[in-house]
Automatic annotation (TrEMBL):
SUPFAM superfamilies: Ribosomal protein L25-like. Keywords: Ribonucleoprotein, Ribosomal protein, RNA-binding, rRNA-binding. The lineage of its organism: Bacteria, Pseudomonadati, Pseudomonadota, Gammaproteobacteria, Cellvibrionales. One of its GO terms (biological process) is translation. This is Large ribosomal subunit protein bL25. This is one of the proteins that binds to the 5S RNA in the ribosome where it forms part of the central protuberance. Belongs to the bacterial ribosomal protein bL25 family. CTC subfamily. It comes from the Bacteria. PANTHER family: RIBOSOMAL PROTEIN L25/GLN-TRNA SYNTHETASE, ANTI-CODON-BINDING DOMAIN-CONTAINING PROTEIN, RIBOSOMAL PROTEIN L25_GLN-TRNA SYNTHETASE, ANTI-CODON-BINDING DOMAIN-CONTAINING PROTEIN.
Amino acid sequence: MSDQFEVAVSARSDIGKGASRRLRRLENLVPGVVYGGHKDPVSVSVVSKDIEKSLENEAFYSHVLTLNFGDHTESAVLKDLQRHPATNKVVHLDFLRVVAGEAIKVQVPLHFTNEDTCKGVKIGGGMVQHQMTEIEVSCLPKDIPEFIEVDMTNVEVGAIVHLSDLTLPKGVTSVALSLGADHDLAVASVTPPKGGAAASGDSSDEADSE
């Protein structure tokens, strides 16, 4: 995790839906909250264009951020964000403070590799489908991975890649898998080519008619 991200935030005392709307409409600011870390929650605001720019970088979502209040800084991760359903603009941010020796739960993106050379695609003519694009993991702040790789090289037609098939970095665990085997969810699969099942059925019918 070589990237470093700093977010300029301002503490605010005016809270509520009306105040949040005024921030967004009149001042081009995005309201948010900083919580956790054994401290009281603090309502904050962030410059809209700055946060939108930061969010263009995938790594921003899975890194420990430095929140700069001007007179002090705090370490946090972006825990959640809300976007407007029509404009897709960010309308609220949740930052979770991190403590160096305490594990946290974060969403980490999945990077699917070798899809073009996947056995089920190259040999079987199938198509890769993603059931997930990110997974929730638990780890110390220093161990947060920027992404988790899903190697599709040897996945055959009809096969499913589950959470338990992923190789996680040392010190990183899947939150879902920690709940038991019933939570070993599908991450990706290779579906048969269109018409494949029908073609097999036609062959069987012809064989039966003979």
